[in-house]
């Protein structure tokens, strides 16, 4: 042990009895054996004959370095569960240790229950080791293919976030979360340590972090690995934890010390919860945490070709790489594998011997069978959704009433909080937002709940307390990651954030979509509530903040992801937003992106019209166009104006009104699209418009001028495969913006009503009488706008005060 590894505090003792741990140590040896066997072997899984080169996989893929720590914790959590009956969910941040967690799930028996072909016998063992990191097999990470998991891991840094989300509103659950010291260098994980400020011991479960410090990443040291125990523990204490250190390189001693540390941590957790739930006053609790220092690649090869491996970065992936070609490496591998004495762990039929099988917790208490992570008794309580009619706006005619579009959603969520409340202050629904709930016009929720804090509440604070269900923290990483853990364990929620800053968590959304995409292919993985993301304070109306706050990039990120799990919604008004919200909250196994602004906007549809639009995904607004109603829909218009988004809808309608007034004989069709991915060709997305439906909206021949909320280039790939896509001419956000007026934003990006009219005149099948005059008017108005906005500092009155009129005179 180096000076840095020497424990300064912890549970290490000279008198720890190890006799009763002997069976658990053997179980650990069996798990380590299966872990290494998965990385290397394609046959001869229990070494019943001397190991030969052809029994080694041709490609060696996997990560050994972190695995022994994971299998040790798995073994000792099993022991804790047997002693206490505690329900435990294991989140493994070092997701590269996939073979270790898979070994645990196989030894539990759960993996064979879910995959009967990988049976609890020699044939099943052969399939287990052969399938790992091979074509047609399973991946090397701890992904959805491993029962009992809700987290993939690796270097992404989301483990503690997922653990926290799983613990919220689940008072009976203990989430053990392994944090790798490489993972601990990431931004999301660094912010995650603030969890004690948000965890309520009265109605939440507990999270027990185990910071596994093994010193190295793939080729270099970790920051925490080179930090002293004093510094590491000091940092964790500053974040609200009460850490202990378990350290060493002697397996039985560290095994016993970690067992004692877990037992002590569990006792302290129960004391904290019992005090809170009995109403005894106490200060903000300091939750236990464990810092575990062990060598990287522990119990594996010490040296290879005279070069140190164990305890160095060389143990990160495959410690012995040339075993098929190098007889000395092959012999060293066989000696390493036999050091775990597989003959003492598995019987003649390849089954785990009864003494070790008896160490598995019973039924749902098995880590790999947790009902929270999709186990046999997993359940999701459907949300008791409020009646939309109680929150819908009265819209007697389109384009006249103005209202803040997201404010009715706030009252809807308020009632949802009431309907999902429990007596202990918990529930099945939470709202996550980076200090923006009021800003995003959702503040009605504070009539019935609070922002969560376990820290002191000061005079003058508003809607702040330990038992609320609104999670506000200025970190998109925390909000999004907490929601992931919350939904993956069967609860429902909404992440509401400023559109531009949602990109901070873009990689998390991508990884979650990939998890869902894979989970639907796995037997035993039930559907989970969807990840719902509300993007507001949007590009077009962040004119008061400026260019840095104007960015629709998350749309570009989500659009190419798996069509089986993604939807992108652009409600044009408040009632449509309510209908979309209801659809998203009812859905399962999806990432729903809802893009709508919070400011005052014209309202267009009543509730029933909104329902019709959302159900169809898009509609022709006949009241806004100038087609004759008796003409054939697919061939009648001279040009189509299409809107995708709230501000685009207003500009399209204003353009249509100008054309109605100045070129009334031009046949103009107005289309509004709410479900963006409906544009994809049939077969590319479940929501894709059929060819007939697409033609009903856009025809197969007419030119279409599209006003789009996001980057124009995001539309063209969606349309690929539709008839004559060159006839679609898209205007949208072209990365021009500043602190300016609302209309100046659309002018800067050439998406104004005047720009749309000019484009429509250029693309029309016919050049109508009066077209030249209308074009001159549009150019004049754009010039007037530029002069007026600079001088008056506000938009032209005819733009600022515009409302829809259907008068054709």
Automatic annotation (TrEMBL):
GO molecular function: aldehyde-lyase activity; magnesium ion binding
UniProt keywords, alphabetically: Lyase, Thiamine pyrophosphate
Domain Xylulose 5-phosphate/Fructose 6-phosphate phosphoketolase C-terminal: 598-804
Cofactor(s) of this protein: thiamine diphosphate
Highest taxon, organism lineage: Bacteria
Domain Xylulose 5-phosphate/Fructose 6-phosphate phosphoketolase N-terminal: 26-375
Keyword Lyase: yes
BP GO annotations: carbohydrate metabolic process
Family in the record: Belongs to the XFP family.
Protein's name according to its UniProt entry: Xylulose-5-phosphate/fructose-6-phosphate phosphoketolase
Protein's organism: Geodermatophilus aquaeductus
């Amino acid at each position: 042990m180096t000076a840095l590894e020497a424990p300064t505090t912890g549970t290490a003792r000279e008198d720890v009895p190890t006799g009763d741990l002997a069976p658990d140590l053997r179980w650990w040896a069996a798990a380590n054996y299966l872990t290494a066997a998965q990385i290397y072997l394609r046959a001869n899984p229990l070494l019943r004959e001397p190991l030969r080169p052809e029994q080694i996989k041709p490609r060696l893929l996997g990560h050994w370095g972190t695995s022994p720590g994971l299998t040790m914790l798995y073994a000792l959590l099993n022991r804790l569960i047997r002693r206490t009956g505690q329900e435990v969910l294991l989140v493994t941040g070092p997701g590269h240790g996939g073979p270790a967690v898979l070994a645990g799930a196989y030894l539990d028996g759960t993996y064979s229950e879910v995959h009967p072909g990988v049976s609890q016998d020699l044939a099943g063992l052969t399939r287990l080791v052969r399938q790992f990191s091979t074509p047609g097999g399973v991946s090397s990470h701890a992904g959805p293919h491993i029962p009992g998991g809700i987290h993939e891991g690796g270097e992404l840094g989301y483990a503690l976030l997922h653990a926290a989300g799983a613990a919220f509103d689940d008072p009976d659950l203990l989430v053990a979360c392994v944090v790798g010291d490489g993972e601990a260098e990431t931004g999301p994980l660094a912010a995650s340590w603030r969890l004690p400020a948000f965890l309520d011991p009265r109605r939440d479960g507990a999270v027990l972090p185990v910071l596994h410090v093994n010193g190295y990443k793939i080729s270099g040291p970790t920051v925490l690995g080179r930090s002293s125990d004093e510094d590491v523990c000091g940092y964790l204490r500053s974040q609200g934890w009460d850490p202990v250190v378990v350290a060493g390189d002697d397996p039985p001693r560290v095994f016993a010390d970690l067992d004692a540390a877990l037992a002590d941590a569990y006792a302290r957790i129960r004391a904290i919860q019992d005090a809170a739930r009995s109403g005894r006053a106490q200060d903000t609790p300091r939750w236990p945490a464990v810092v575990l220092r062990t060598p990287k690649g522990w119990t594996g090869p010490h040296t290879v070709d005279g070069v140190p491996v164990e305890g160095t970065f060389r143990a990160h992936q495959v410690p012995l790489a040339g075993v098929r070609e190098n007889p000395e490496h092959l012999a060293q591998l066989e000696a390493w594998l036999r050091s775990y004495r597989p003959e003492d762990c598995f019987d003649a039929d390849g089954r785990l011997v009864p003494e070790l099988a008896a160490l598995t917790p019973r039924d749902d208490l098995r880590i790999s069978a947790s009902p929270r992570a999709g186990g046999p008794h997993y359940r999701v309580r459907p949300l008791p959704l409020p009646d939309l009619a109680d929150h819908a706006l009265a819209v007697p005619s389109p384009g006249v009433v103005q209202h803040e579009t997201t404010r009715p959603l706030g009252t809807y969520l308020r009632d949802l909080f009431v309907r999902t409340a429990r007596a202990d202050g918990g529930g099945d629904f939470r709202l996550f937002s980076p200090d923006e709930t009021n800003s995003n016009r959702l503040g009605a929720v504070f009539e019935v709940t609070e922002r969560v804090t376990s820290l002191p509440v000061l005079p003058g604070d508003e809607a702040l307390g330990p038992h609320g269900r609104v999670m506000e923290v200025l970190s998109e990483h925390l909000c999004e990651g907490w929601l992931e853990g919350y939904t993956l364990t069967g609860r429902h929620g909404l992440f509401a954030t400023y559109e531009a800053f949602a990109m901070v968590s873009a990689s998390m959304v991508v990884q979650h979509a990939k998890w869902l995409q894979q989970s639907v292919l796995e037997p035993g993985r039930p559907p989970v509530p969807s990840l719902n993301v509300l993007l507001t304070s949007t590009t077009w109306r962040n004119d008061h903040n400026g260019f840095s706050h104007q960015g629709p990039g998350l749309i570009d990120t989500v659009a190419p992801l798996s069509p089986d799990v993604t939807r992108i919604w652009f409600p044009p008004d408040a009632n449509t937003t309510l209908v979309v919200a209801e659809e998203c909250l009812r859905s399962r196994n999806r990432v729903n992106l809802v893009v709508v602004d919070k400011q005052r906007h014209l309202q267009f549809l009543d509730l029933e019209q909104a329902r019709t639009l959302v159900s169809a995904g898009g509609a022709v607004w006949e009241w806004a166009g100038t087609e004759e109603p008796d003409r054939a829909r697919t061939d009648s218009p001279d040009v189509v104006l299409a809107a995708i988004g709230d501000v685009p809808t207003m500009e399209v309608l204003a353009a249509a009104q100008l054309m109605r007034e100045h070129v009334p004989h031009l046949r103009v069709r107005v289309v509004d699209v709410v479900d963006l991915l409906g544009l994809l060709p049939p077969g590319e997305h479940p929501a894709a418009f059929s060819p007939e439906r697409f033609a009903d909206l856009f025809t197969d021949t007419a030119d279409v001028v599209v006003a789009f909320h996001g980057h124009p280039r995001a539309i063209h790939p969606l349309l690929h495969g539709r008839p004559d896509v060159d006839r679609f001419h898209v205007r949208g956000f072209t990365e021009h913006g500043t602190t300016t007026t609302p209309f100046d934003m659309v002018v800067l990006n050439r998406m104004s009503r005047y720009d749309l009219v000019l484009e429509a005149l250029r693309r029309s099948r016919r050049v109508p009488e009066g077209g030249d005059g209308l074009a001159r008017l549009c150019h004049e108005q754009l010039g007037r706008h530029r002069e007026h906005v600079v001088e008056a500092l506000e938009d032209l009155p005819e733009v600022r005060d515009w409302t829809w009129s259907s008068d054709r005179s």
